[in-house]
């Protein structure tokens, strides 16, 4: 059976989302904030400003995206601006790093160099394994720099520092398109037991703050994101209520826990993984509850796309992940260059067509899936 990538097309323009009916049983999957039209409109502007970018995107669309050496540059990238965090979450490997830190912060100058060199980019995420607001003003400047080029920018934060140094205002005013905020409990006990080192009340207050700032500007930028696990499985309805109460218009339940490409973390997170327990009737009831509160609810399963035997992960063929210390990692699920690295430095062109990434693609195409990737190709779909 021929392999194909699981990237779907919307009106001739690509938006990555789970395939309908795979793993999530046809439930709604996360869409851009505020909506898909805004996402596609910004893409059209981005492409219209650069003939070179447009030509690359056309080549990307026309390709089958199964080449060992693609005839286009990556259209999306993740930039890990910091590899350090002020939380020690139970399901995250950052909690084991000495003092919650792995490497140096990404320098603003290096970020700008990659943005300028990688003419194919139409979308980026600024965040990796760490809390991005710890970098202070360079973080906001990275977002502004990309947005000045109409690149769609998404970021993720734990919201713990948004009340300090005007961070909430700076983030909103940076022009960022989407802010995912991690909320893994609906009360203090549950939240703080999972997101260790947090203060529930402060995070909730900060979420309300940034949502008010967005409302005052007449924009929607935030999405509440919950990693469903044994410790919060009983609170799904409460989490919907919480989202509405603190001003979220969009939220998602992530139904699996990643392993960072490591067998030990696969065992640990499998022990608290409860995705198979969520049945369709309960999901529909949650969707109804969210709709009554004016909240758009979606369900996400990162591995659901790759459980069918005819599909392979699109990451090696379409995008790149640059760690804070300028090492290229195959994907955001692995995230840690100490686990798997396919290149180094700001010269992404050399890495994109380099031997390490070429071999990585070759193995996917041959069905010889690298060990660090196997966690995304296994598991049971939502019933």
TrEMBL record:
GO terms for biological process: heme biosynthetic process. InterPro entries: 4Fe4S-binding_SPASM_dom (IPR023885), AdoMet-like_SPASM_containing (IPR034391), Aldolase_TIM (IPR013785), Radical_SAM_PqqE_MftC-like (IPR050377), rSAM (IPR007197), rSAM_sf (IPR058240). Its EC number is 4.1.99.22. Its cofactor is [4Fe-4S] cluster. Keywords: 4Fe-4S, Iron, Iron-sulfur, Lyase, Metal-binding, S-adenosyl-L-methionine. Coiled coil: none annotated. Pfam families: Radical_SAM (PF04055), SPASM (PF13186). PROSITE patterns: RADICAL_SAM. The keyword 4Fe-4S applies. One of its GO terms (molecular function) is GTP 3',8'-cyclase activity. Residues 72-296 form the Radical SAM core domain. This is Cyclic pyranopterin monophosphate synthase. It comes from mine drainage metagenome.
């Amino acid at each position: 059976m021929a392999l194909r990538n699981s990237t779907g097309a919307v009106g001739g323009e690509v938006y990555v989302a789970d395939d309908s009916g795979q793993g999530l049983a046809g439930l709604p999957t996360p869409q851009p904030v505020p909506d898909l039209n805004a996402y596609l409109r910004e893409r059209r502007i981005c492409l219209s400003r650069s003939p070179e970018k447009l030509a690359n995107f056309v080549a990307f669309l026309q390709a089958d995206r199964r080449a060992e050496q693609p005839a286009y540059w990556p259209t999306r990238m993740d930039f890990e601006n910091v590899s350090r965090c002020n939380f020690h979450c139970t399901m995250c490997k950052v909690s084991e790093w000495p003092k919650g830190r792995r490497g140096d912060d990404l320098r603003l100058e290096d970020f700008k160099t990659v943005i300028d060199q990688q003419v194919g980019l139409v979308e980026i995420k600024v965040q990796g394994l760490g809390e991005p607001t710890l970098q202070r003003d360079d973080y906001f400047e990275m977002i502004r720099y990309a947005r000045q080029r109409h690149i769609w920018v998404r970021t993720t934060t734990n919201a713990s520092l948004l009340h300090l140094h005007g961070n909430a205002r700076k983030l909103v005013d940076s022009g960022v398109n989407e802010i995912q905020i991690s909320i893994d409990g609906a009360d203090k006990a549950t939240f703080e037991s999972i997101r260790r080192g947090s203060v529930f009340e402060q995070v909730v207050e900060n979420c309300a703050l940034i949502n008010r700032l967005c409302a005052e500007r007449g924009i929607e930028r935030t999405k509440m994101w919950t990693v469903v696990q044994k410790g919060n499985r009983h609170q799904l309805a409460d989490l919907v209520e919480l989202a509405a109460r603190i001003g979220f218009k969009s939220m998602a339940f992530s139904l699996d826990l990643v392993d960072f490409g490591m067998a030990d973390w696969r065992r640990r997170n499998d022990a608290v993984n409860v995705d198979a327990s969520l049945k369709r009737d309960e999901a529909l009831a949650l969707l109804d509850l969210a709709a009554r509160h004016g909240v758009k609810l979606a369900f996400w399963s990162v591995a659901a796309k790759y459980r069918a035997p005819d599909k392979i992960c699109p990451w090696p063929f379409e995008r790149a992940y640059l760690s804070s210390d300028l090492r290229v990692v195959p994907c955001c699920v692995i995230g840690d260059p100490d686990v798997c690295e396919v290149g180094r430095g700001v010269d992404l062109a050399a890495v994109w067509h380099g031997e390490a990434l070429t071999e990585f693609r070759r193995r996917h195409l041959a069905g010889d899936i690298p060990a660090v990737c196997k966690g995304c190709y296994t598991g049971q779909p939502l019933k």
